[in-house]
Amino acid sequence: MLISLKWLNEHVDIADITPDAIAQKLTMAGLEVEGIEEKHPAFSGVIVARVVDIEVHSDANRLLLCQIFTGTETVPVVCGADNIAAGSVVPLANVGATLPGREKIGASSIRGVVSHGMLCSEEELGIGSDNSGIMLLPENLPLGRELAEVLNLGDTTLNVSITPNRADCYSIIGIAREVAALFDRPLKEVSCELKQVESHIAEFASVKIDAPHLCPRYSAMMIAGVKIGQSPLWMRQRLEAVGIRAISNVVDVTNYVMMEMGQPLHAFDYELLAGGKIIVRSSQDGEKFVSLDGKERILRKEILMICDAEKPVAIAGIMGGDNSEICPETKTVLLESAYFNPVSIRKSARYLGMGTDASLRFEKGIDPNGVLTALKRAAYLIAQTAGGVIYNGCIDEYPQRVEVAQGIQLRENKMASLIGMVIPQEEVMRIFTSLGMECSRIKEGFLVNPPSYRVDITREADLIEEVVRIYGYDRVATTLPTFAAAVALPSGREKVEEVVSDVFSGYGYSQILTFSFINPKAVDLLNLPLADERRNFVVLRNPLVEDHGVMRTTLVYSALQTLRNNVYSGNTDLKLFEIGRVFFSKGIAELPREENRLCAVVCGMAFGQNCHFGKSPAGYYDVKGAVEGLFSALSLRNVSWRGEVTEPFLHPYRSAGIFVDEQKVGFIGELHPEVLARFDLNVVPTVLECSLDLLTELVQDTKKTIKALPKFPSSYRDVSFLVEEAVTFFAIEGYIAAANEQLLEKTTVFDVFRGKGVAAGKKSMAVRFVYRSSEKTLTEEEIKEAHERVLKALVQNSGAELRG
Amino acid sequence: MMAVSNLSSDVIPDSVMKANIAEIERVSLREVADVTDMAGLQGLRLKYLGRKGVVTALLREVSQQPPESRAQWGKSCNELKNRIETALEERSSVILASGASASLLKQAIDVTLPGRTLPRGGIHPIVKVSNEICTIFTSMGFSIADGPEVETDSYNFSSLNIPKDHSSRDMQDTFYVTDDVVLRTHTSPVQIRVMEGTNPPLRIISPGRVYRPDWDITHSPMFHQIEGFVVDIGVTFGDLKGVLLLFLQKIFGEDTILRFRPSFFPFTEPSAEVDIQCGICHGSGCRSCSHSGWLEILGCGMIDPAVFANVGYDYDKFSGFAFGVGVERVVMLKYGVSDIRHFFENDVRFLEQF
Ligand SMILES: [Zn+2]
Q1: Lowest mean pLDDT among A126-140, A215-229, A673-687
Q2: Tell me, what's the ipTM?
Q3: Which residues partner with B232 through β-bridges?
Q4: How close does chain B come to A454, measured CA to CA in Å?
Q5: What's the predicted TM-score (pTM) here?
Q6: Contact B176 A540 (CB under 8 A)
Q7: Cβ distance of A481 and B230 shorter than 8 Å
Q8: Which residue in chain A has the smallest CA separation from B147?
Q9: How far is the C-alpha of A576 from the C-alpha of A573, rounded, in Å?
Q10: Contacts of A489 in chain B (CB under 8 A)
Q11: In order of start, what are the domains of chain B with their CATH numbers?
Q12: What angle do CA B206, B208, B212 make, to 5 degrees?
C-alpha cells in the first residue's frame, strides 16, 4: 500500500523525521517498507502570473494575444484558450521551462507576434486531466513565484507491504497510529465539523437489513444540492500519490476517506433509488446485475446485494451498479458506510472475480466502530468540495453486534517463558498504551482491551507478539537451547538416496531436478497400454501450462526431455540422473500413492571426448555398470536382469527388468526406435528407472559384514569357447554352477567376440575361472581336476565348443 | 673378484697391497668413465662401494693387518674409496646433464596432454545445499521427517491455522487437485503430521519439494523448502534466534549478520522474517539487495497456540519454534545465481559449475 508522507503528516507530526527513519522503524515493527519514492512535479520553470490584457490576435481569430504580468515585468504571450480574462491568475511556463512530454519552451514567433512562454492547462503541467482551458489559480497566490512551491506539489510515498493480519493498516490513519506508537507522538485530530440543515434524513430515506448475518451494520447520510465537478487539486494530488485515479468530487471523497480511514464507502444518486429505500438482502441464483464498470454479472445465492424498493443497486462491499451511480447531473447523494461479513465478501469477490479496494478491506475486517466516523468525515468533505447541505441525522441500522475482543489476559510468566526474557512491567504498559490498548494490572500480569480496529488481537499470544514487536526483536537475547547430545541418524531412505547420489555422481552422472508435473500425453508417447498403472494420473485443476497438467507417474519422460534439451544445446555426451517422486491416483477419496524413484539416462560417448579412450558409445552396459555399483554399495545381492521383462517404450531386445530377491525393482534399456522418433532425437539414449522405496525395504535387512582376506593363493585358467548367440552369460553361469565345484571361487567373462573365425549365429566367449581353497595352497593336479569338472559341466549343458 | 679374491687372511705384503689398490683404482675409474646410464652407474656403485663391494672387502682385509701397517693401508683404502666416490658423482652429473639415455627418450610421453578422466558427474546444487543444511541440523540433534507432496487441504492449511475463506490464504497461491486436495505449498504440513503422531520433545527437519503457481526469474512452480521445528518445555524466542544464527553462519560464513523483523504467518506467533546483511554492500545498499542492505532469507516464529490445539498439545506446558527456508533462495544468494529457472532447466554446463 502506498502511503503519502504529506497525508500522513496530517495525522501525526513527522515533519522532522526523514523518510528513511520512518521506513526503518516501520520495517522493524513488521510493516515492511519495500520502497521510498520521492515525487516531484513533472514541470519546472513555471511561475504564477496574472493576465493584464487580452486581445484577439490580428492574424488568426482563434488565437489570443495576452499581456502577462510576471510580478516584475509584462510580457506578450500567445494563447489559444478562451477561459481567461484580464485579472486571471495563471501558470506561465517561461522561456526555458520544461513541461512533461514536450521540448523546452523557447521564445517563438506565432504569426508575426513573439510569444514569451506559454500559459498552461493542468494537463500540460501533468498535475491533472483537465485540458479544457488554462489552469486558473487562486487569486491570492504571490506573482512570480515557482508554481510547484506555492502549490506545495511534490510528495514522498512509502510502499508498505501489509501482512494479512493487519487489516487496520490499510489506511493512512492506520499507519499514522503505528508511527505515533513507534516515535512516541500523539495523533492529530482531523476536522469533521458538520453543519447540518433541519431536514432530517429519516423523512427521505430508510434502510432495511434482511440479511443481518452478512450485513451487521449499515449506516447512511444524505447531502442535497451538490454540484458534481472536479475535486480540488490537493485531493486529486493525494489520491494520485496513493495510486487512485480521480473521477469527480463526490466519488473522490468516498475514495479519499477509504484511503484515509480504511472504511470503504459508496455514494448513490438518491434520485435513482426507487422509493428512497435501501434494502440489504442476499442474491438469488442466476440473478443478473450490471456493475458500474458496465459489465453484466451473473450472481449466485448468498451474494449480498444492496437494493432499492425495486432493484439491486450495488454488490455490497464490492462494486456499485451503473443504475444508481453518481453522474454529472446528480443533485442529492445518499452515502453508505457499512460493516459487511468478511468471509461473505471474500467468497463473493472470488466468485465474481472482482477484487476491489473496497472488497480487500471488507474481507480483512474493518473497524466496526469506525463506520459512523468515516461516514461523517465523508459527508463533511462532500459538502466542502461539492457544495450542498447535509441532512440532519444519520441512519444507523446495527442489528447484529460485531464482537470485539475485550478483557484478554496476558500472563507475565507465559510471556517470559515464550520470549526467554522478562520485559519490565512499565515497558509493557507503555507499549499497550501507545498502541491504543487499555491495559490494567492483574495478579498474573495484565488485562488488555484492544481497540476495535485491531481485529487481529484476540488471544494472549497476539498480545505477546505486540509487546515483542514494539519492544524490538533485536533486543531479545539470543540463546541456544540445551539439546541432548544425541545425534539423529538419517532414515533408511535418506541413507539410500545418499548412496545413490554418491555412486552415480562418482560414475560421472550429473544430478538433475525436473518438475513433478508432466504433460498427460507423455504416456501415449511412451506407448503405455491403456491398463498401465502409469495412466492413473493425479490431475491438476489449475496447471500453469498444458505441459504441467498432471503429476508424473514416471521419471523417464522428464529425463528424456532434459536429455533432448541438452543435446539441442550442444551437450552431446550425457549421463544424467534424478531422484524424485511419482504419484499414482487412488481416486478422489484418498491421497495418491507417492513413490521415490531413481532415473538415469545416458547418450553420446561413454567417456566423453577424451583422447585416451576410444570412441565407446554409452549404452546399456554403462548404465548397468552404475546400477551394479549401486547394488554393491547397498550390499544388495541376488540380483537378476531379465530380458523377457521389458517396457513398451524400450528396445525389446536391448532392455531388461531388474530383480532383487525375485522382486522387480525397475527396468533398464535402450529407447525403442519408434519412441526415439517421437522425441525427435538423433541420439539413442539408454534409460533406467528404479524404485528407491523398494530398494530401501530390501536394504534394511542386509547388514554389511567384511570378510577376512584369503589366506592361500588362487590360480586361474582362461578358456574361450563358441556358443549359440541365444545362450546368455546368465545361462552359462547357471550351467557352471551345476557342477557345484567347491574350489571354483569366481567366474568372469573378459571377452565376447563375433565375426572373423566365428560362424554366423555363434559367438566366442572368453572366461576366466579362479580356483582357491580356504584350507591350503592348491596343487597343479588339484586345479587341473577341478577345472576339468567345470569344463565338462559347461560343455555338456551349453553345447559349448572349446577353442584352444 | 680378481685382485681381492687372491688375498689371504694372512699378512699381506706391502707391495701386493699397493698393487691391488692401484689395480682397483685403474679398473674402477675406467668402468665409471664408460658407463652411460644411471642404472649402470648404480651397478658400479654396488660393485665397488656396496656392502659386498670390492673396496669394502679390501677394507676388511686391511683391518686384519698388523697394527703398524693397518693405519697406512687404511688411509690408502679410504682415499681410493673417496676417489671412486668422486668419480661416480662426477659421472652421475654428466649422465644427468646429457639428458637421459636414448632408451628413456624412446619412452617419453607428452606430459601436457589432458589426463585420462571420466567426465565428472555431480550432485545438483539444490540437493547439495539441502543436504548441507540438513547435516547442520542433524548434527544439532534434529531428525529428518518426510511427508506427502500431494496433501490434504486440512494438513496444508486448516490445521496450520489458515482457515478456508480467510484472507491469509492469499499468501500462497495454490495448485488444486480437488477442493480438498492440493499440491503442498510449503513443508509446514509435516509439522502437523509429526506432532499428531508424536509427543514432545521434538526436533525435526524436513526437506522437500513444494509447489505454487508462479513462474518468473525468482519464482518457480516447483521449488524446495526445508522445514524445521522444535517443541519442548521452555523453548524460547531467544532459542529460535540462537539456532538460526548458528545455522546461517554455518551456511553463509561466520561473519554473517542477521536481522529478525516482525512478520506474519498464520501458524506462528510471534512471527519473524529473517534477513541477512547484504554481503556485497555490507548493509549500505546496492542493486542486489534492492538498496535495502538486507536480503530476505527465511520465515520463522513461535508455534501458534491454535496449531498446538489442533494436534492436542498443551500450550501452557509446551512451547516451540518453527522455520522454513527456501533452498533455491539460499543457493542463489550463496552462488550468485540470478534466475531460478536455471535450476530446473538442467543444462549440464550450468550444473557442472557447482
Ligand atoms: Zn547490497
Answers
A1: A126-140
A2: 0.86
A3: B319
A4: 15
A5: 0.83
A6: yes
A7: yes
A8: A594
A9: 10
A10: 138, 143
A11: 4-106 (no CATH), 125-351 (3.30.930.10)
A12: 125
